[in-house]
Design goal:
heterodimer; A: mainly alpha; MetI-like fold; 2 domains; 14 helices; B: mainly alpha; 12 helices; elongated
Chain lengths: 322, 306
């Protein structure tokens, strides 16, 4: 049953993927100027000095700028499906290779922010619901409001000010690979993870609290209490289990926000993940890489949402039979 | 349903819009958070409109004698690297921030509402195709999309409006489509149609007013993300560029002087947070009261047809 559900959901994402690929392809059409020059990273000066006629001709043929747009799109899509996202004008290597080289850093950051966010949010959200209107609830509300109203990059600046400038405890830019130097890796990961984790936590706390309060009014909870089960068992074995279900979905969908927010955060900390690559490529006018990164990140988000859906169905059999 | 046929003509259309606004006023009157939010917003709008005329200092005038000085009586938030008054610049930044956000939200509404209405009204395969496209746009991370769009078009207020509104169009389209589907079969809509009202006019006079509440909630909650989007894009150097003053850009410039002039990083961020808080407090309260999905199970309201 689950396999059939997964397959059906996978089929359903195809139109979405299709439309997204069209949007990403169209991005390059929006850039003013000769598209061949744009994709070659031309940024002013005498064209003859920077770009040889052969290179120009090769790119012209690759893009097929004289063909109708749908044909160009089709060609671009079929190359993208084969993993050919073009060549970076700046680095002269395949875009996919650059992306894959940057991928681990982004994954580490996403994982550590999610873990940090969950560690803060789950206990706080549950406590806020169980002890509604007490000081715990007020603290939780405060954290939620703080997360909702403070832009992540400002929180980041304030943390840099505190931990970097005044206390000097943590590095404020850069990265170290975990296999090379784990302590340094963790120190570089700390500030960006805190910023993204807090943002993430705010949403999750709010969600868990509301969901918990709703669950607590359900019949099954009354039954469990009536059976004489202790409050601890009712909360942790019954409500918590049910509530986590919904939380997983929120986590899945929040990845999309996390990815969006991480562009600013990665850039601010000069953290060499995919999002920072995007910003760097924009400033270097390396549009093949820009296009590749946007497509890659969008696919990643769709995939995460898909996983969240499947996980939800796995935990909640009712969905599968609908 | 013979009663429906015999019923008097549909209620005067203006009433539903007025009713929606009246509900908003009631929520504000009865909810303390909504009140705080509303006051912040009213204050911000007043400052944004008259602020630039009453600001204590010229926003562009450099004064090398007081470069990077902390808060003093004459420069209550300190000065930047050119000796310009931070407080006056923050006031200008508020005007710009609200302009960009309001423009982006307005465009999203103007584009999203007809799309949703048309889709819901037509139904069938047209509806499926439009809604699939909307789903795809929603599935893309909005901030990422905005960055990519601005990078392609180049930085300008118009580009920001387009880029920031693009991702929120589907939210309005979905809401209105839902509203249209819910109202399409109601007796008064049929009555309106049968007395020769055109589809467009039926939509404007009878369907939209009834879908107003969730749209108002969505607009209020759309502002914080639009404000943050502009600030983030300008922070990255992709949004507004000097001489236009933007909080995001001020924060970006402040990074260089973090050690010697932390106030440059503190105050624009505080201003951003307070403005966003206004919308969040009001939006949350409105959503709790107006959006049926958030009523919870306690208040399962039974609706009687109008």
């Amino acid at each position: 049953m689950l396999i059939r559900y997964s397959a059906r959901r996978l089929l359903e994402t195809i139109p979405t993927l299709f439309i997204i690929s069209m949007i990403v392809f169209s991005l390059v059409l929006l850039i003013p100027g000769d598209r061949v020059l744009v994709m070659l990273g031309y940024s002013g000066g005498d064209i003859a000095d920077v770009i040889s006629p052969e290179v120009y001709e090769r790119m012209r043929i690759r893009l097929g700028v004289d063909d109708p747009i749908p044909l160009q799109y089709g060609r671009w899509l079929s190359r993208a499906l084969q993993g050919d996202l073009g060549t970076s004008a700046l680095h002269a290597i395949p875009v996919l290779d650059i992306i894959l080289a940057r991928l681990p850093a982004t994954i580490y950051l996403a994982l550590s922010s999610i873990i940090l966010g969950a560690v803060i949010a789950i206990p706080l959200g549950v406590a806020a619901a169980v002890r509604q209107d007490t000081w715990v609830d007020k603290v939780a509300n405060g954290v939620v409001l703080f997360g909702l109203v403070t832009p992540g990059f400002w929180v980041a600046l304030m943390l840099v000010l505190l931990f970097g400038v005044y206390l000097g405890w943590l590095p404020t830019i850069g990265y170290a690979a975990p296999q090379d130097d784990f302590p340094e890796f963790a120190r570089h990961l700390a500030l960006p993870s805190i910023v993204l984790g807090l943002d993430f936590a705010a949403n999750v706390i709010r969600f868990i609290r509301t969901d918990f309060l709703e669950q607590m009014r359900e019949d099954y909870v009354r039954t469990a209490r009536a059976k004489g089960l202790s409050e601890r068992i009712v909360i942790w074995k019954h409500i918590f289990k049910n509530s986590m279900l919904a939380t997983v979905t929120v986590l899945g969908f929040d990845i999309s926000r996390l990815m969006g927010g991480s562009t600013v955060i990665e850039s601010l900390f000069a953290y060499p993940g995919i999002s920072f690559l995007l910003i760097q490529s924009i400033f270097n006018r390396d549009f093949a890489t820009v296009q590749g990164v946007v497509l890659f990140l969008a696919l990643m988000v769709i995939f995460m949402n898909y996983l969240a859906d499947i996980l939800y169905a796995l935990l909640n059999p009712r969905i599968r039979y609908e | 349903m013979s009663e429906a046929v015999a019923a008097p003509l549909p209620p005067p259309p203006a009433n539903a819009y007025v009713a929606a606004l009246r509900t908003v006023r009631e929520v504000i009157a009865n909810d303390r958070k909504a009140q705080i939010g509303a006051w912040i917003l009213v204050g911000s709008i007043v400052v944004a409109v008259i602020g630039p005329y009453v600001a204590p200092h010229d926003v562009e005038l450099p004064n090398t004698d007081i470069r990077l000085t902390g808060p003093t009586l004459s420069n209550i938030m300190g000065t930047d690297h050119l000796g310009r008054d931070l407080f006056s610049r923050i006031i200008s930044g508020l005007t710009v921030s609200l302009q960009v956000a309001a423009g982006a939200v307005l465009i999203a509404v103007i584009v999203g509402v007809p799309i949703g209405a048309y889709s819901g009204y037509k139904g069938g395969w047209i509806d499926s195709v439009i809604m699939r496209i909307m789903d795809a746009v929603i599935a893309m991370p909005g901030r990422l999309l905005a960055i990519a769009l601005v990078a392609a078009i180049g930085p300008s207020v118009g580009a920001l409006w387009f880029a920031i509104s693009f991702g929120s169009v589907p939210r309005y389209a979905r809401l209105i489509r839902g509203g249209v589907l819910a109202q399409k079969e109601r007796e008064y809509v049929e009555a309106a149609r049968s007395i020769g009202e055109s589809p467009g006019s039926t939509l404007l006079r009878y369907v939209l007013p009834n879908a107003m509440a969730p749209v108002i909630v969505q607009i209020t909650l759309n502002f914080p993300s639009a404000i943050t989007a502009e600030a983030s894009l300008s922070f990255l150097g992709l949004g507004l560029v000097p001489p236009t003053i933007s909080w995001g850009q001020m924060l970006s410039a402040a990074q260089q002087y973090l050690e010697v002039a932390p106030w440059l990083a503190i105050f624009p961020g505080l201003a951003l947070s307070v403005l966003i808080m206004g919308f969040v407090l009001l939006g949350d309260a409105l959503r709790d009261h107006l959006d049926p999905r958030y009523h919870g199970r306690r208040r399962a309201r039974r609706r009687t047809p109008a």
